[in-house]
Design goal:
alpha/beta; 6-stranded parallel sheet; Rossmann fold; 459 residues; 7-stranded parallel sheet; 17 strands
Length: 459
C-alpha cells in the first residue's frame, strides 16, 4: 500500500520541528508516518536511539507490526522493551536496534534504570493524552514526573501523537504541550491556562468538584497559539469516504485465552465438517468462541468468568485518542456491559429513560453504551456525536445497519452537523470476530463465512 500524501506531510512536519504535536484522527496512518520521519532522521542526524512510549497493547503489537508490513519501513530495527525485568534488560542490550518501544507503566523503571545515562535522543509519545495530568510544580502522576525529568537535555527531539482534540478536550492540552515547549506557548502554570481559557462551574458541595468548559474563543485561540508546532490531520478530509469512515482495530488474545479459544474453535470446525452447522451443538460452540474473543464466558449458573481485557484496552485507547469527542459503544453480551461499566464508570447505558437521549444530544454524556437490538429503529443520536465503536459484533445484519444509522450520514445531514460518521470495529485477531465482520460487509450466510474461515485456517 503506497504512502499517502498526508502521511508524508506528517513525516515532514516531524522532521522540520524538533519538538512538535501530531493531531491525527484514528485510522489516518500516523504510526507509519512517524516511522518514516524517524527513518529519515536516523539517516540525516544523530537521533539514535529513539524511544517510543505507548499504551501496553500498542507497544506489544502495533508499532513493530506496522513497520514490518510496509516496504518503506520493514528494514527498520525495532525492539520492544516490555515484560519482566530480565526481558526488559535483555531488550535494552540489543545493539542492533535503533528504535525501542515500551509502555507507559515501564517509564519510571526506565528512568531509574538509566539515571544520568539516559540515552534516548528522540522520544515519541503515542497517545500523548496520557501526559494531560502533568503539572509544572506538583509534577502530576508518577510516570509524568519521571518522564519530565528526561524530556530535555539529551532528548533533543520530542513528538506528541494524539487524536484531534474536540473543544471539551482542550483543557487536557496544557500538560502535553509543556513537554514540547516547557510552557512557552500556553504558559508555565496550569492554573493560569485554565483561568484564561475556561469557565468553572461547581458540581456538588465540595469546593474542588468543578467542571470546566472552554470560553467562546478558547478553541481558536489555543489552536493558534500552538499552530506553529502542530499539524492537524483528519482522515475524512483526505479520503473518498462516501457516507462513513470505517476503521478496523485488532485486539490480540493473551496466551491463556488463545489456548482456550483454540480448543473451542477445533470443536466448532469439527461440527462444520460433519455438516451439523444447523444442529444444536454448532451454534452453541460458535457462541462460546465469540464470548472468548470478547473476554468473558458465561457459566452454567448464569454468572460469567472473565478471561482477558484485550478489547477493553483497545477501547481505552480509542477513548483517549478521541480527545473529548463523545462516543457511542455498541456491545453484545450482558457481561460486555458489566465489564464496560466496571472499566469506564463514567459511561452510561442507554435504557428506557428518554432523558438519556436528550442528554446525549446535548453533549452532556461523553460515553454511552448501547445494544443494537434495543437502540435500532427510530432513535436519532446524531446531534450528540458522530463516532460509533463496536466493542462486540453480532451476526444480525439488520440490527447492525440500524444502529449505525442512529448516527449515520442521513441523521448527520438532518442535524446539520457537517460531520462524517466514524465507525470503529474492535476485532479479536484470528477469531470468529473476523467471520462476523465478513458476514456484515459481504452479506453472506453465517455458514458460508464459517466454512471459509475453516478452509483458511487449514491451508
Amino acid at each position: 500500500m503506497p504512502v499517502k500524501n498526508y502521511q508524508w506531510e506528517i513525516a515532514y512536519h516531524i522532521v522540520m520541528n524538533d519538538r512538535c504535536n501530531v493531531w491525527s484522527s484514528m485510522g489516518s496512518g500516523k504510526t507509519l508516518a512517524t516511522l518514516l520521519a524517524i527513518d529519515m532522521l536516523l539517516v540525516s542526524e544523530d537521533v539514535w536511539p529513539v524511544l517510543i512510549i505507548a499504551p501496553k497493547r500498542v507497544a506489544q503489537s502495533v508499532w513493530v507490526e506496522e513497520a514490518a508490513k510496509h516496504e518503506v519501513t520493514k528494514h527498520m530495527k525495532l525492539q520492544r522493551v516490555i515484560g519482566n525485568l530480565k526481558t526488559r534488560e535483555q531488550a535494552l542490550a540489543n545493539i542492533e536496534a535503533s528504535v525501542f518501544v515500551t509502555n507507559f507503566e515501564v517509564v519510571p523503571w526506565l528512568v531509574d534504570h538509566f539515571r544520568d545515562r539516559w540515552p534516548f535522543r528522540m522520544v515519541v509519545i503515542d497517545e500523548s493524552s496520557r501526559l494531560k495530568g502533568h503539572r509544572a510544580w506538583s509534577g502530576g502522576g508518577k510516570r509524568t514526573r519521571a518522564l519530565h525529568k528526561k524530556a530535555w537535555g539529551r532528548t533533543c527531539r520530542w513528538v506528541n501523537l494524539t487524536g484531534t482534540p474536540a473543544p471539551n478536550g482542550l483543557i487536557d492540552l496544557w500538560g502535553q504541550q509543556h513537554f514540547v515547549d516547557g510552557g512557552l506557548r500556553l504558559g508555565n502554570r496550569f492554573s493560569s491556562f485554565r483561568y484564561r481559557w475556561f469557565d468553572g462551574k461547581r458540581v456538588g458541595h465540595h469546593p474542588m468538584a468543578m467542571v470546566y468548559t472552554p470560553k467562546k474563543k478558547a478553541d481558536d485561540e489555543i489552536r493558534h497559539m500552538i499552530s506553529d508546532v502542530t499539524i492537524t490531520v483528519d482522515v475524512r478530509d483526505y479520503m473518498d469516504v462516501g457516507d462513513l469512515v470505517e476503521n478496523v482495530i485488532y485486539a490480540h488474545l493473551p496466551p491463556k485465552a488463545r489456548t482456550a479459544y483454540g480448543g473451542m474453535e477445533r470443536q466448532m470446525f469439527l461440527d462444520l465438517e460433519q455438516g451439523t452447522a444447523e444442529a444444536m451443538n454448532a451454534p452453541a460452540v460458535t457462541s462460546k468462541c465469540h464470548q472468548i474473543a470478547q473476554g468473558a464466558l458465561y457459566l452454567d449458573d448464569g454468572g460469567f468468568e472473565k478471561l482477558h481485557d484485550a478489547k477493553l484496552e483497545v477501547l481505552e485507547s480509542i477513548i483517549e485518542e478521541s480527545a473529548g469527542e463523545s462516543l457511542l459503544v455498541a456491545y453484545h453480551y450482558k457481561h460486555d456491559l458489566e465489564r464496560l461499566q466496571a472499566r469506564f464508570p463514567l459511561g452510561i447505558a442507554l435504557g428506557d429513560d428518554p432523558s438519556l437521549i436528550k442528554a446525549w444530544n446535548e453533549k452532556t454524556v461523553p460515553l454511552m453504551f448501547i445494544h443494537p437490538q434495543s437502540a435500532g429503529h427510530g432513535l436519532n443520536l446524531a446531534e450528540g456525536g458522530h463516532t460509533l465503536v463496536f466493542f462486540g459484533l453480532d451476526w444480525n445484519l439488520e440490527y447492525h445497519q440500524q444502529v449505525i444509522e442512529r448516527i449515520g450520514a442521513v441523521r448527520q445531514a438532518q442535524a446539520q452537523t457537517g460531520k462524517t460518521p466514524l465507525i470503529h470495529y474492535i476485532v479479536a485477531k484470528d477469531t470468529v470476530d473476523e467471520s462476523i465482520l465478513t458476514r456484515l460487509r459481504e452479506k453472506k450466510s453465517v455458514q458460508e463465512v464459517l466454512v471459509d474461515a475453516m478452509k483458511r485456517r487449514k491451508q
